[in-house]
Amino acid sequence: MFLGRVIGSVVSTKKDDKMSGRKLLLIRPMLIDEKDPSRLRPGQNTLVAVDNLGAGVDELILFAQGSSARQASGLKSMPIDAAVVGIVDAVDVLGKKVYKAEA
């Protein structure tokens, strides 16, 4: 699993029939900043992930990639490479709060 931030959504009217009705999100992976481990920094790449949980823009999420993504509920037969598998409430690194979701 990886941490990521939802930065947008993707709309595709023509897609594999198995993907019909699925919400697609644009995700930016988030990394621990090597210079300051008390904060997160955005990664270099961007990816599209299927969302079964209802994540929204600017939320920090957990995502799985590759064959692990298809292990999420209802995704086994889908042609996907990434899936949102959790919405993050908090992240602590070395005993310090790096992220806390807004209430």
Structure explained in plain terms:
This protein is mainly β and 103 residues long. It has one domain (2-100): OB fold (Dihydrolipoamide Acetyltransferase, E2P). The protein is 0% helix and 47% strand. It is built from no helices and eight strands. Strands 1-2-4-6-5 form a five-stranded mixed beta barrel. A hairpin with a 7-residue loop joins strand 2 (23-32) and strand 3. The two termini are 24 Å apart. The model has no long low-confidence stretch (mean pLDDT 90).
**Helicity, as a percent range:** under 10%
What is the count of helical runs?
0
Report the span from N to C terminus.
24 Å
Mean pLDDT: 90
Strand fraction: over 45%
Tell me the total number of β-strands: 8
Class per helix and strand makeup:
mainly beta
